[in-house]
Amino acid sequence: MYGQDSAKDVYRDALPVILISLVAGLFAGTILGSETMRNGIESVPGLLLLLPAFLATRGGVYGSLGARLSSGLHQGIIEPNFELDERLSNAVLASFINGMSVSVFIAVLTFGLLVAFGQTGSLVQLVGIMVIAGFLSAVLMLSVLVSVIMVGYRRGLDPDNIIGPVVTTLGDVFGVLFLLVGVYIMGLVL
Amino acid sequence: MSSAGDDLTGLSNELADSYDELTGVVEDDSFQSITEEFDAEWSVRRMVLTMVPLLAGLSVLQMASGTVLETFEDTLLENPSLLILVPVQIGTAGNLASIMCSRLSTQLHLGTFELSVTNPAVRANSLAVFALAGTVFSIVGVAAWAIGTVFGGTLALLDVFTISMISGMLLAALVVILSLVSVSGSYRLGFNPDDTTIPIVTNLCDILGVLILFAVVVVVV
What we know:
The complex is a heterodimer.
Chain A: H1 7-33, H2 35-43, H3 47-75, H4 86-116, H5 123-154, H6 159-189
Helix pairs in contact in A: 1-6, 3-4, 3-5, 3-6, 4-5, 5-6
Chain B: H1 2-41, H2 44-71, H3 73-78, H4 80-110, H5 120-150, H6 157-188, H7 193-220
């Protein structure tokens, strides 16, 4: 009976998901701790300031898209195929707009805080990095998330159980990686 | 007999009328409005207008942990092991919190949850969170030290391990307390804990995770 789960049962059930997110976190941490990223942090004022907000946005935007698609599939108002259904394309487009606008918002907010703290920073650089990182994450997260949910659903997996680990794992690893790409590209441009 | 038969005929006519009424209504108005409701629910405008203010608000909150990271920039750049701990700390805190909250909410719906130290659900879940945190943060302590050393860090294994374990166990305590308080609190305030607790507690734990990590760093390093 559910109510009688012992601590051992809970531990055994939760361990795989926790270990997956641990491996993802270590990957993200390794990218963050690398020589290249540390140089980036040193040369871009505000990069550490925006990091937690940027990572949390991935969960908010794509976690909610996942939950929405999963409910849509369960209700039968979304078909588990890749044809351009209006609801599916609306949800994907809305997530893209959400991801991009919040990324730009974070860049502006970070710049504002830097100015308030009396530090120097470049608004163009921060917005540029966030637009690049936000765009690349959006493309990757949207395509992987939609594919995994659709394919998983057709194979009889409950999308509600897949979204969490997929969003956490991909969001952390690729969030930090694309941030690095953004820093690199803006370094070439400016 | 005949009166019973009349009654039945009357009843069946009545049923037929109600049926017509129901199907008529469904075909005409409410089905239409249900469909419209669905379409409004799935309109780009609605999805953007609900989510963006929420996400923007959360970003403002996350700036608290960003500020802490920025303050410790020199320490972090000097010790890559600590930088590696940051995403793990953030991720694990949120995950433990979401597991604990969703399990306690289910127990609450099943009627087996009670805010008390003797409650079996409270005991089992709290113990499991501490055991999971112990497992994860001992692995993390060693892994972050090893990777950090490869990147040229100089912190000793014992230091990184201690930081990881102490901050990890404090975090577990925070997850347990916040989950218990928010699940029973949202029930008392009349909210479904499924909707309210996970976003609130996971975000709080994300932010407080970084704060705890650096409070411990200050003490140990």
